[in-house]
Amino acid sequence: MDDIWQAPIGKTLDVPVSAALPPIPLPVGCHVEQLIWHGDPIGGSPSAQVVTRDGDAATVRIALGERIIADLKVRRGPARVPRPHALLRADVRAGAACTKLFPVTAAVTTDHVPDTEPVLSTPALIAFMEDTAADVLRPLLGPATGSLGTWIGVRHTGPAHVGQDLTVTAVLAEVRGRRYLFDVRATVDDRPAGDGQVAQTLISLEP
Known about the structure:
Layout: E1 30-37, E2 47-54, E3 57-64, E4 67-76, E5 97-103, H1 122-137, E6 145-156, E7 165-176, E8 179-188, E9 191-204
Antiparallel strand pairs: 1-4, 2-3, 3-4, 5-7, 6-9, 7-8, 8-9
């Protein structure tokens, strides 16, 4: 079996890939630091390859042909013990969630495609997802503290029309210092409209 620390970058690894977590066997003394799913479930015969390696960290990409399924960041050493950040009044752990309903109005739709009905724009979808994720943290923010969206990895998979309501759910997936990573999902009438991940980072508002 190939060693992710020795295999050439871009080489297909001789390791079994599964739908379990983690999707590949980990080397001894390592842990998963981050797992980013790109929306497609594992099926068929996916492969794995190292796409980056920097010191004690390596990113392994899971793919099915040309379609990327997930990126797995592996790090040597024990996993960090989660601790509440000093900028929060209370601890928040993976699994904390928020669901919000957003009406689709003309102000958040596209208007640049001629002879087509306006639909919810992708920037608006991302803004709704970031706002929902931020709402998980807002009740816990300490004095002179805020949060900013600092990373997005989102797919826009279905239309939403004026007059419909978009339901957005954000679930906290990972805490790393000031950075909080959320799995996000949007639906319209129980039909998928978008999914992915967004990150919020705590900031101090003190001068």
